[in-house]
Amino acid sequence: MALYEHVVISRQDISPQQAEALNDQLKHLIEEGGGAVAKIEYWGLRNLTYRIKKNRKGHYSLLAIDAPADIVKEMERQLSINEDVLRYMTVRVEELDLELSPILARRDRDRERRDDAPQF
């Protein structure tokens, strides 16, 4: 099986729970096809660089996938017909990076700085 990193951007109108449900649907689809999802990261509602279908923001998610190519193709087909999905991108990688992505690592680092700041 091949290793992939997959990013999904969904509409700003949906709730974070609906974005997480979309991730769960993708995970279920991949596992049914004999693949595995090593990591799912929900990055939250973030600003887009440019408008996509009249949206200025989107819910970002990252999935680290170990699956056959036909399952990934089916996942992309289903995402292309889903009205809640603005964009998606799948990239084949040599090995999966299971550590925290730079986006979440920065968020945690900023949170630690605020917690360590002296309280007046």
Structure described in brief:
With 120 residues, this protein is an alpha+beta fold. The chain is built from three helices and four strands. The termini are far apart.
Explain this structure.
- With about 120 residues, this protein is of the alpha+beta class.
- It is about 40% helix and about 40% strand.
- It is built from 3 helices and 4 strands.
- The chain has a 4-stranded antiparallel sheet, covered by helices on one side.
- Strand 2 and strand 3 (about 55-65) form a beta hairpin.
- It is globular.
- It starts with a strand and ends with a helix.
- The relative contact order is 0.26.
List keywords for this structure.
single chain, 120 residues, alpha+beta, four-stranded antiparallel beta sheet
Q: What is the makeup of the main sheet?
A: 4 strands, antiparallel
What assembly state would you assign to the polypeptide chains in this entry?
Answer: single chain
Low-confidence stretches: none
What's the gyration radius in Å?
Answer: 16 Å
- State mean pLDDT (0 to 100 scale): 88
Distance between the termini: 55 Å
β-sheet strand percentage: 35-45%
Series of secondary-structure elements, N-terminal to C-terminal: EHEEHEH
Helix content: 25-40%
What gross morphology would you assign? globular
| SS-derived structural category | alpha+beta
Strand order of the largest sheet: 2-3-1-4
The number of E-state strands comes to 4
Helix tally? Answer: 3
